[in-house]
Amino acid sequence: MSPDLKIATAFVSSVGAQTPEAIVKALAGHAKFLRGRLAGDLGQMRSMPSFRFRVDTAFENFAKIDRLRADIDAIVAGIEQ
Q1: How far apart are the first and last CA of the chain?
Q2: Does the residue 54 lie in any domain?
Q3: Where in the sequence is the domain holding 31, given as residue range(s)?
Q4: What are phi and psi of 14, to 5 degrees?
Q5: Exposed, middle or buried by CB within 10 Å (0-12, 13-18, 19+), for 34?
Q6: SS3 of 80, please?
Q7: pLDDT tens figures, 13-70
Q8: Structural domains of the chain, count
Q9: Which of 14, 41, 69, 73 is the most buried (most CB within 10 A)?
């Protein structure tokens, strides 16, 4: 959420055939519809934020860190021998 609560950011990842970029594009195209549906269900809110969708890269970053740690472990193991 933005500090003024007017924009909600949803981070999207995918499992399957579609790329996260395609999913983000589809969600962005339906953002007004989603906002309207949620506004109806969450009527007690003063105002419903606009939605913004972004690709979630956290999993990719974790995988990179894991690979780097494995590389370091292999180097250290080689030095210790």
Answers
A1: 51
A2: yes
A3: 7-80
A4: -130, 150
A5: middle
A6: helix
A7: 888 778 889 999 999 999 999 998 888 887 777 788 999 999 998 888 888 898 999 9
A8: 1
A9: 14
